[in-house]
């Protein structure tokens, strides 16, 4: 690894794994990187985050939930609610 080389790392500003350029090294160890998307410099995180990446299903569910008029839960098949008619006395 050399200064200016491309490396993947978790960007603290973008909050995602992005392409970075190596900015600072101590010996053979990368110390600082610059995000090639937002140009922010930060220490090298070794592409580790405090939380796991979302799966495709989790991302889809989150997107659907954020849409206006979205249902919180899908309706269960075969169950319909019917109002009971009041029977009038004869």
Explained architecture:
The structure is a single chain. This protein has 90 residues and is an alpha+beta fold. The protein has one helix spanning 56-66, and strands at residues 6-11, 16-26, 29-35, 41-43. It has a domain at 1-46. It has a four-stranded antiparallel beta sheet, with no helix packed on it. The longest helix is centred in the last third of the chain and has 11 residues, at 56-66. The model has no long low-confidence stretch (mean pLDDT 79).
Structure at a glance:
This protein is α+β, with helices and mostly antiparallel strands and 90 residues long. Helix content is 12%, strand content 30%.
Radius of gyration: 26 Å
Q: In what order do the strands lie side by side in the largest sheet?
A: 1-2-3-4
Count of individual helical segments: 1
Poorly predicted spans: none
Helix content: 10-25%
**Series of secondary-structure elements, N-terminal to C-terminal:** EEEEH
The SS-based structural class is alpha+beta
Overall, the morphology is rod-shaped
Q: Secondary-structure blueprint of this entry?
A:
Layout: E1 6-11, E2 16-26, E3 29-35, E4 41-43, H1 56-66
Antiparallel strand pairs: 1-2, 2-3, 3-4
Question: Which properties best describe this structure?
Answer:
single chain, 90 residues, alpha+beta, four-stranded antiparallel sheet, 30% strand
């Amino acid at each position: 690894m050399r200064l200016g080389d491309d490396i993947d790392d978790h960007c603290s500003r973008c909050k995602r794994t992005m392409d970075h350029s190596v900015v600072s090294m101590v010996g053979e160890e990368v110390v600082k990187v610059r995000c090639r998307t937002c140009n922010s410099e930060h220490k090298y995180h070794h592409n580790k985050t405090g939380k796991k990446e979302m799966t495709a299903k989790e991302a889809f569910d989150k997107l659907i939930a954020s849409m206006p008029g979205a249902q919180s839960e899908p309706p269960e098949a075969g169950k319909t609610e019917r109002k009971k008619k009041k029977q009038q006395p004869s």
